[in-house]
Amino acid sequence: MATKKQDTSSRIADNKKAAYNYFFEERFEAGMVLEGWEVKSLREGKVQLTDGYVVIRDGELFVIGCQINPLKSASTHINPDSVRTKKLLLHKEQIRRLVGKVEQKGYTLVPLNLHWKAGKVKCEIALAKGKAEHDKRDTIKDREGKREVERAMKSRHR
């Protein structure tokens, strides 16, 4: 079940390092189990996904390393843990398929972004294969080539 591109207004956070480090095979949209203070922090944009990864334990998906920083005005009766392991919600058949794929050599699950959908926080995850060093260099070369073309087009239109 591939996801469509979200509009930028519903985006909370992106994992920009993921596209540099991995090739994406498949994308999935999963719900997240969050506490109240985490949702409030997400509304303020106090989240970091770059060090996050997804693991499968006992047939359930969890995001580890996704840091949600608590607000200063967080409730006094809770102790917020910014790097708490967060559960992801997917259909059982999707999880079973992912388990089979992740067990293959070189595949992993990576969180790509967090976004709002119908008032709920969703996490887009991808089944990914790690890039070799020469693939990363190719990515940089392509990106710089596109920048040069854009600069040339921009200066030509002046």
Structural overview:
The chain is of the alpha+beta class and about 160 residues long. The protein has one domain (about 10-130): Small Protein B, Chain: A. The chain has helices spanning about 15-20, 35-45, 90-100, 135-155; strands at about 10-15, 20-30, 45-50, 55, 60-65, 65-70, 85-90, 105-115, 120-130. The strands form two sheets. A seven-stranded antiparallel beta sheet has the order 1-8-9-2-7-5-4. Strands 3-6 form a two-stranded antiparallel ribbon. A hairpin with a 2-residue loop joins β4 (about 55) and β5 (about 60-65). The model has no long low-confidence stretch (mean pLDDT about 80). InterPro entries: SmpB, SsrA-bd_prot, SsrA-bd_prot_CS. Keywords: Cytoplasm, RNA-binding. It is found in: Cytoplasm. Belongs to the SmpB family.
Query: Radius of gyration over alpha carbons?
Result: 18 Å
- Would you tell me which CATH topology applies? Small Protein B, Chain: A
CA-based shape: globular
CATH C-level name:
Mainly Beta
Identify the strand order in the major beta sheet.
Answer: 1-8-9-2-7-5-4
CATH superfamily, called what? Small protein B
